[in-house]
Predict the structure.
Amino acid sequence: MKRKYPNEFLFAAVALLIIIIGVQTLYATWIRPTAHALLTDQARRARDPTYIPERSVYVIVKDYEQESCMIMLLWAVSILTYKAIHLRREQRVLENDLVRVPEGVKILPEDTREYARQIEAFEQNSGSYLLPRALLVALGRFAATRNVQDAANASHTVCQTEGDRLDSELSMLRYIAWAIPAIGFIGTVRGIGNALGQAQKAVTGDISGVTSGLGITFNSTLIALLFSVMVMFLLHALQRTQERFVLDAESYLDDRLIRHMYVR
């Protein structure tokens, strides 16, 4: 199959590498230093014993689990964007009249070669899309069997197969949607473990270690759930668009080609 798009696996790998470098740089140069400054404002705390460090978004996202969740979120968005762009190009093909059958004109089995040449010319110039492939399969089956129902079944099978392929290619996004809350749970366990490790100090009245551990717990859970909801929303929106595209392609085939076929 001729492709004009980068290999999706290569794109995903390169995007992940760039995102890791970018997010790590952002955390090292901005987020963690800012969060550390907010949490260790010793001068103000010395002047005001009742001072409580500001609850900032930098403090909420400063830990490694939140950083990992952000990397996974941006990676999912990059893959979703890649798929959405490719799907949009597929949808634009539906706006073309590839068969050009005037109203009232019938397509006979002997005419299929002429119409197939038009579609092949478009496919050579534009790359491999679902609609040209389905049209060529329908015309080829009609020429071979001289049966309209066989041609319709063949073209719809191509569309259904493409729909299954598009759905299977969402497996990586489904994995990311599962991995984000899992990473958040790791932060929850780590935070609880840190809090329990400081329990002895809490008995003496120093609860800073316990509160720090519980902060990791709640912050990682919050960010993981929030990012997971975002990924799931985008994933379902893309899946719905893909399903609608396949249905539109089947309607195109029925309206622009199948209903014009005729056997004497």
Observations:
- The chain has one domain: 8-260.
- The chain has a mean pLDDT of 84.
